[in-house]
Sequence to fold (1018 residues):
Amino acid sequence: MSGRRRLRDALLQRPGLRLTLAVAWLLALLALGAIAASQLQFSGDLRRFLPDARTPEQRLLMEELGDGPGSRLLMLAISGDAPEALAARSRDLHAALAGDPRFTLVANGGEAGLDAFPEDLLAYRYLLTPSFDDAPLDAGVLRDALDARLQDLGSPAAGLVEPLIPSDPTLEVLTLAEAWQPAGAPQRLHDVWFDKAGEQALLLVETRAAGFDPTGQLDAVGTIRDTFAQQAGGSGAVLEVVGPGAFSVDIGGRTQAEAQRIGMVDTIGLILLLLVAYRSWKMPLLGVLPLASAGIAGLTAVALLFPGGVHGITIAFGFTLIGVVQDYPIHFFSHQRAGLSPWKNVRGLWPALSTGVIATCIAYATFLFSGVDGLRQLAVFTITALGIAALTTRYLLPGLVDPSPPDLAASLRLQRLWHRIEALPRPKWSLAVLAVAAGAAIAFSPGAFWQNDLSKLTPVDPDSMQRDTELRAELGAPDVRYVLVAQADDSDAVLGATAALRPALDALVAAGRLDGYDMAARYLPDAATQRARQGALPDTPALRAMLAEALAGSPFNDDAFEPFVEDVARARAAAPLTRATLDGSPLATAVSGLLLEREGSSTALVSLSGLDDPADVAALAAQAAAPGIDVRLLDMKDASESLVIEYRGRVLAAMAVALVLLVVTVWIALRQPRRVWRVLLPTLLTLVVVVAVLRLAGVELTLFHLVALILAAGLGLDYALFFEHAGDDRDDQIRTLHAVLVCSLMTLLVFSLLALSSIPVLRAIGSTVALGVVCNFVLSLLVARRRAAITAARAEPEPVP
Amino acid sequence: MAAAQNAEPPRASQSRDRVPAPAAVAPRSVDADWILHRLTQGAASATPFVELRVSAMLKRPLLLSGEYRRPDADTLVREVRTPYVETTTIRGGEATIAREGRSPRTFSLSRVPELAVLQGSFGALLAGDRKALENVYAVEADGVPADWTLTLVPREPRTAARIAAIVLRGRDGELRCIETRPKQGEPQPTLLGSAATAAVGLDSLEAAQRLCHDVPR
Fold:
């Protein structure tokens, strides 16, 4: 005990020691921050921030797809040079990316052709081809084929086809190569895909990373751009990357850049504000210590409790929410004056400070039971951070501050301000009117209450959207919104079920209601189909007889097609091709995105491009569903919106519980109903007013608004608690006024800058908190203080300088 | 060029092109300009052709006859009439093959250098555009006006990988034969004009090559 006193005395008497310790603390925090930044595993998987799936659609979206096949596609356009040069760029880029494990598909139109037919699959061609499904191979078919092959031999391109003919007189290799071309592929110039105008070489890239995974997408898009930049060198060729992944990378980058710019301005503003408020250069340094300690403690706690990685959104939301701890040292500083020991000062403030911290922590604790991983992380982060900030302010900061700064209560300017505020009329019934008006505005304001489409918060600029639409049409790339899904116990069942849809889908394509579709069964027929084809193939004697008949009188030699006879015999004897046999062939990648195999269940996807009316395909799906096979049209947008709604439901439930707990905590701390009412009224009324203003401004509320409202409530509670705590003492009232003024100006500065941002997410958070700060400040000032103090103050004359 | 300076026909003054002497002057050798000029002058919009294809798969060589047409500057049509009917239209980097009883197929010329070569050589030849021709081929002329050859070696590596050279043979303004020499396999001669007319009953590659090489005097 005496040791602690000695340390306190030493600190009080030695400003040099105080400053050294403060600087050492800051340096330690910087070092810890650097370690944290390098060690922390960040996870970008948005799914960890979403609740568990309930409906089959949600489960598909979350567990199977990670996102639709369309969302993992990036569309590349190379322009700005002669077509030959662009084609060369396209080939180089294809060569560099094709082997990269980060991409499941890299297509530029160049790889399809006779020479591209996978050697291993040659023997299977008679099991894969649908050519003989309707009309079995017979002498007539062969004769027709031989006639056509003779013409091939007579064409100037004879050299190209001639080597294939002996083993493949019906050219099934060509039939399959064409069937495997992406549906609705663009035109080819100089052997690669080009747009209709022939000015841009086009490529299609499918990332392994889900569209949900911003880190993976950033990596993929970065790789593509870097590779191209390296290859293109100084040539005029320009690469354009569009697609959901590229957009999210683009927006992520813009958000980060803007947040950083705003952060810079904020930092300068805060330092200036603290300098002006306390006329001491040490204050900005000391003021930042609790916040920085809180952030690092929060990160550490999350890293320890969640080995799966800290979610990027936890960090972003978390640092937004703990902005409130910046207020703790401010209250302490504003009350420090000569003759008052810093330790005593902080003990005096502790009831108000701890009530605020405990109430807010209990409120955040409800997130622990939300059932959403990301929200749990957020709760752990904020609770740890708030606790640490309060404790450092209580136990460490007093040893470091200058014990005898000028008393702010003696400032004439503050006194005058305080008197003017005292002269203001106290609202009473007008608050009830305000509450009713705000409630009415919330209830009757036109327009949707909630914005469920998360993509609206990260909008793609119209030009990019236009390019996306153009290139998607040029490349026949699948729709990001709709996908047809078949689920069953095994792959054969889903392959068969999707293959059975082909005639109907083809009819839709022919009718112009659908541009194209793709499915795994296009590449890999189900085993039953393969066996049926095997069964329909003639045995060797029968085939020889057919050939003899077809060759009679033809210019071909009688033994010209022996290799064909051998190949058919091999196909008859082969075991049906399975997913596993495909491994390593170019077809495996095509199938991998469209056939998802898990223990005991298989999902086949049919990607759709240029779908006019979803009802067409939904009707097909309904007809195709059979016992044991679930076929449905999945609306990704619907499924993700339903997830957002569910997520919001949980946040709202957690918030409601939190509000109740907050009221109970304040009640327990303050005990008297009158005091509880004075503290809670400004906070609760602010929530209603802010929502009303947002509604009147036509803003559709999102999760980001909710998070911002939680912060605003936390800030308001602190303002009210401190005003209430200041009691009847005039000087104490003035010091509290100073503290709350500095706090709210600081918060207002930070969040009004965010409110001016061009990024809707930042704007949502910024505008909500900024509104909340103003409203909380005014209402706390007018409502939270004791009536007796106000009456006494009015009796005093205004000070004259 | 030296030979061309012997005579200056009046037309030359209208053109920067040096117009070579007419055949009557009987220069000892020809050059590419002379040949191209002759060809453009004598270029018919249609010419009969005969082609002989040899393959190990076939009992006897395949003899095709038909007509090459140039309905306009950008289009080349190869119409086979016997032993089957097939029309190949080459235009704007694409070839469309129409066969009896089947829907026409269109594909990019870049996939089939042999067709691109046909289009390029015919097109540039008949337009007399030596510059365009030299962009695509190394051009070499040889012979005398009554029996000349123009050898075109593809510059583009992908085409060059398949085709060693295209040798055109002719007499004065008449292109008599185009011989495509693949990197692998036998040269495939296409007889044109009077050579095609004379090729009735052709039955061997040697006979075709003879017709192609031997200019009737």
About this structure: Chain A is about 65% helix and 10% strand. Residues 728 and 789 of chain A are 4 Å apart (CA to CA). The domain at 1-39+280-406 of chain A is CATH 1.20.1640.10 (Multidrug efflux transporter AcrB transmembrane fold). Residues 244-278 of chain A form the longest helix (35 residues).
